[in-house]
Amino acid sequence: MQPVISSLLDTDLYKFSMWQAMLHRHPATQAQYRFVCRNTSAFALAELAPAVQAEIDQLCELSFQADELEYLGGLRYIKSDFVDFLRIFRFQRGFVRVSTEGPELRIVVEGPQVHVMAFEIFVLAIVNELYFRRVSTADTLDEGRRRLKAKVGRLRAFAAEPACRHPFRFFDFGLRRRFSGAWQREVLTTLHRELPEMFTGTSNVLLARDLDIVPIGTMAHEYLQTFQGLGVRLRDHQKAALEAWVQEYRGDLGTALTDVVGMDAFLADFDLYFAKLFDGIRHDSGDPVEWGEKALAHYAKLRIDPATKRLVFSDALDIERCIVLYRHFADRTQCGFGIGTHLTNDCGLPTLNIVMKLTRVNGQPVAKISDAPGKTMCDDPGFLAYLRQVFGVPG
């Protein structure tokens, strides 16, 4: 059977953007990542361990091909020395451990961050596709195509309605929890053909290249979390991360993620300097309307016209939720919608809520204090309590 991953481009753009930033600024950082399934699966994920091991073995045999490096090098924010690093890069099998504990699947990645950070998306895609190979039925993809057709029809009907000041734009963020690589390609091909004015990009670098659409992504939680373990004052780690990003990309990739220690703590650090330098911010947890109103109020307080900025929504979106948020905000500011599972794994089967999160940096714990309690992650309660205290975030 075809391996789940056959190209190292088959990952999210923000892995490359964060990877380059860390290679240039903190190449000696050590990091640990852990796999977590947040919901109940149809069967014990531990049963997948042998197949996951085999897929990771194959992943570690891959290298970047000349045409892939040429594509990456053509992105204006990717530097030539990073391309040279990728030219000789290979995943090291010794940095990833797969085991079981009762019914649970355990995956831990640990080593130099610039050698292990890219495992995340591949591991999640592997687990997800292996899982759905077992639970899918003969009519699963037929149901997926029916639902995809309904999405296209709904968006065409929405396009005929009166528009807000700013256009409706959505993109695919569904690689990590996709039904399969082949299905993601079919979905994106359909959306690109049927809704070219609305569907404007994907986080999947391979499919962006193959379908000639825009690759989209900037930073994830791990980027800001890493700075919790880099020796800067903990209270200043968000500012340090944002400043390093500005210096690395100098105007490109200007969307900042807000929920590493919560929106309120983020806005306290997102002063006039950063608010002017970044094109916008991304929502990934908590009530999106409340979040968006806080963002617009913050821009107004700084005397920045919100119409010049962009709010990107990316938390558990479906088409109807995007439309509601668009109608609420798009007369005041630019909006973008990164849709994940609802695009790439809406085939009538219950989905997995799997993540692989950064847990330690240079031997020290790091944490994410999400605006949604279920998304908060840390394996050290003492550090989590301290982080809350430092930023004044209630437990």
Please describe what this structure looks like.
The chain is an alpha/beta fold. It has two domains: 13-136 and 351-391, nicotinate phosphoribosyltransferase, CATH 3.20.140; 140-344, nicotinate phosphoribosyltransferase. Helices cover 44% and strands 14% of the residues. Helix 3 packs antiparallel against helix 4. The radius of gyration is 20 Å and the shape is globular. The model has no long low-confidence stretch (mean pLDDT 97). Pathway: Cofactor biosynthesis; NAD(+) biosynthesis; nicotinate D-ribonucleotide from nicotinate: step 1/1. It holds the Pfam family NAPRTase.
Summary tags:
about 400 residues, alpha/beta, nicotinate phosphoribosyltransferase, 2 domains, 6-stranded parallel β-sheet, 5-stranded antiparallel β-sheet, about 15% strand, globular
Record the SSE blueprint.
Layout: H1 13-25, E1 30-37, H2 49-59, H3 66-73, H4 80-88, E2 96-101, E3 104-112, H5 113-116, H6 119-135, H7 140-159, E4 170-172, H8 181-194, E5 199-202, H9 205-211, H10 221-226, H11 237-249, E6 255-257, H12 263-269, H13 272-277, E7 280-283, H14 288-301, E8 310-313, H15 319-329, E9 334-339, H16 341-344, E10 354-361, E11 364-365, H17 381-391
Helix pairs in contact: 2-6, 3-4, 7-8
